[in-house]
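ugh ok fine here u go
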Amino acid sequence: MTAKNTFPAATILGYPRIGPNRELKKALEAHWSGRLDEDGLLFEARKVQDRTVRRLVQLGLDAADSSIPADFALYDQVLDTTAALGALPSRFADLADSDGGVGTAASFVLARGDGERAPLELTKWFDTNYHYLVPEIGPETRFAAVAHQLAGIIRRQKDRGAVLRPVLVGPVTYLLLAKAEDGAPEGFDPLTRIDDAVAAYVGILGQLAEAGAEWVQLDEPGLSTDAGAALAAPGGLLEQVYRKLAEAPVAAAGRHANGRPALLVTTGYGTAGDPARAGEALAVLAAVGVEAVHADLVRGALPSAEALRALGGTRFVAGIVDGRNVWRNNLLSSLDVLEDLQAQSGAAVSVGTSTSLLHVPHDVAAESALPAHLPAWLSFADQKVREAAALARGLAGGRPSIAAELQDAEAALRSRAKYDGVVSPAVRQRTAALGEEDFTRGLAERRAELQQAKLGLPVLPTTTIGSFPQTGEVRRARAAAQKGSITQAEYEQFLKDEIARVVALQEELGLDVLVHGEPERNDMVQYFAENFDGFAATGNGWVQSYGSRCTRPSILWGDVSRPAAFTVPWTSYAQSLTRRPLKGMLTGPVTILAWSFVRDDQPQAETANQVALALRDEIADLEAAGTGIVQVDEPALRELLPLRAADQPEYLDWSVRAFRLATSGAGDATQIHTHLCYSEFGEVIAAIDALDADVTSIEAARSRLEVVADLAGFGFRRGIGPGVYDIHSPRVPSTEEVAGLIETALDAIPVRQLWINPDCGLKTRGYEETRESLRNVVAAAKAARETQAVRA
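structure:
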């Protein structure tokens, strides 16, 4: 029997890898701080891996049948694929081992930089809040099969009795996600290196087969983008690549007839290939000999009956359990779909998740403080594994075999639909009464005149994005207040002292527009969720954002409103300490949606308007208290952008209108700022302009201010602050480095429009590096002012 007939009935595409109590995060940060050596780090990582395998077996997967994916990246799965390919940019070439491999220490240099070398660029993984490290490929980039670390994991787990399925980013997606290395010829496309990359993948398959892998998972979510879809048609690049992989002989003795491991190709985050011909890309893969193909049935279209029949003996993995949201699966509805798919295809169907479960927390059972009504409605990673296993049993054994699971799921759905607060008549009446005037401010030119008269800012004004370092002392004080070991009055005094210290530091450094530092905020979205009706915050619902960084998305379950002002006291107190202008800091409606688990029972546009009205009320109270600048951060504006161009106008319309609804109640003399980060901004500059913010700050340092050319080409006319200090790396940029970035900006942006600021908030940085970096930023800005004055 060939491997294609032995794929498990239930599987997942990936599992949270940070650990149920963030064990890997803690080990990574201990290693980076010098408190844990590399052997100690790898020991802790192996403990997390072992725990994951044991837990997945408990939840219904089989350790011996390749149903468990080996998705154990220490930092990032794209970085791991870069390491397995030995695809080092030339500036990191010295880090390669003798065979071209990339060890653990070297991979962290790629991720975090060292000395004068900036790390690989970070950007969002498709339309999620996960960040991946962008490969840099040039005409001379070396590719080699050096998957030693992944092969070692497979060997170790096999020795422990588990036959795992190693996971890599597939070759088409890998090169679609890559950028041209600095120094590459203008117009160079990394996809031109596909033959060299595929040769390395062939070698990697051989290494994994030798290690004992029977199946290998190649993730090709790039096929769900317009660029990838163009490659997925019959006769296209996808077919050429996978014919080579499927037909390549491998020396190792695996279960497949030609020796290599069997291949599962996954296509999450939407419809692979042309949506009008759903399933065609899967049929292309099946025709060249791929043993199993996957489709995202949550965000993607159902494959056509014709495409399913064309799969022949290739196993179809139906991604029907949502890997990206936390609502309980409608098992009965899902079973209807699965039974129909199996009948149409005439072949066996496996049940899987739509994507990796990387995007959801570990376990609802770990939450002890959620409102009593909520846990029964929810499904985190562990519950999703159980759902996939139950659906597989129901598909194989009929509905009576999972009668209890079906009954429980139906009861939860009924409870959710009827619960008080899911619908609030007062909120619905307010959104229904909105008119076009609620989305519009005065002319930008007149606003700029009024704001400058009020604020009196110099050219090239300096500011930060909002947060200052959240030290251990801040976190300990917050925890003590939550436990009741200090009084609320003591905690508030601590926060006031911290705010006073941050304000004094900014004045000492010479910043022009100050912030209060946000010590009272545990998270830029959770803080708002805790002060809005319709939300619930988790206690342990951590999700990896990048590297060791985790977020704790709140759960938006009902209609949203704001009971009372909550940012005003801290902003007003901070402003009382300084004569310089100080920003009120809010998180925008789109970002609150993007970084929460949002209800799925109404259009997102309606939910966004509800959040926007709650923020509008807060802005009105800040204005009434005398705040002259309000920043409404939308770092996730680009994140939610649909992957297909045809779907983007509708999203951009409601997302821009939500921001304008939140901010258009402000007076013309109130300066509205916004902030965006980690996006390919060129695609959405028109939408950024349509936000109508007076000042927009943008992440730009890692990409060496690539965005300024797009801004200049568009003719952006309001204030703009492309970041000149990369806060996602511990590096301290020199004054000269920052000055060079400012000069790059000034080559494209008129001086009257340009602001000088870091890429993002400083929450994750330490005070020593923050102080030194900001001092260099201010010095570079002052020098640029003097140069501009001489030129004038």
